[in-house]
Specification:
Elements (H helix, E strand, L loop, with lengths): L2 H5 L4 H12 L2 H6 L2 E6 L2 E7 L13 H17 L6 E12 L7 E11 L3 E11 L5 E15 L4
Antiparallel strand pairs: 1-2, 2-4, 3-6, 4-5, 5-6
Length: 152
């Protein structure tokens, strides 16, 4: 996918489908995560800093970091799937590169290869400050499977 395509917005129908699915995510709702960008093959999710998403040293917890990374990739793939399908994670690997400390985390899921059944995404998570400073704190890769709604 080239850069101009990544800058465009997903159609209104795709955005609504992604938002409707996201709103059903109990964990992400509990964490306080929110969608901040939906484009073809690219989704951003923000997670504001609060004590409930930190670990004992005050950094964002790896579980919270991993959860938003997984969901950003899943929804990035979902933007390219047909209307009558859903997405499930098959596997993902995440490297925690630095302690995550900031005003929020920003997860970016980007489709690297979309297939008929399996899709591979790149996962990035940045610690962001309100002044616009961002630092890459996690990086990973994910494989997702497309399933029909009736198959679940």
């Amino acid at each position: 996918m080239d850069e101009p395509e990544r800058l465009e917005k997903a159609s209104a129908e795709v955005q609504e489908r992604v938002r409707a699915s996201f709103d059903q995510q109990g964990l992400l709702t509990h964490l306080g995560a929110r969608l901040t960008r939906i484009a073809p093959g690219v989704v951003h999710i923000a997670l504001p800093a609060r004590p409930e998403v930190t670990q004992q040293h005050g950094y964002f917890h790896a579980g919270a970091t991993s959860s938003i990374a997984d969901s950003a990739g899943g929804y990035a793939a979902f933007t390219l799937f047909p209307e009558d399908t859903e997405v499930l994670t098959v596997e993902y690997k995440i490297n925690l590169l630095a302690p995550a400390l900031g005003d929020r985390l920003e997860a970016v899921g980007t489709v690297l290869k979309a297939g008929r059944a399996l899709t591979v995404c790149q996962l990035e998570v940045f610690a962001a400050l309100d002044d616009g400073t961002r630092k890459l704190v996690a990086n990973g890769q994910q494989t997702l499977i497309r399933v029909s709604r009736t198959a679940q």
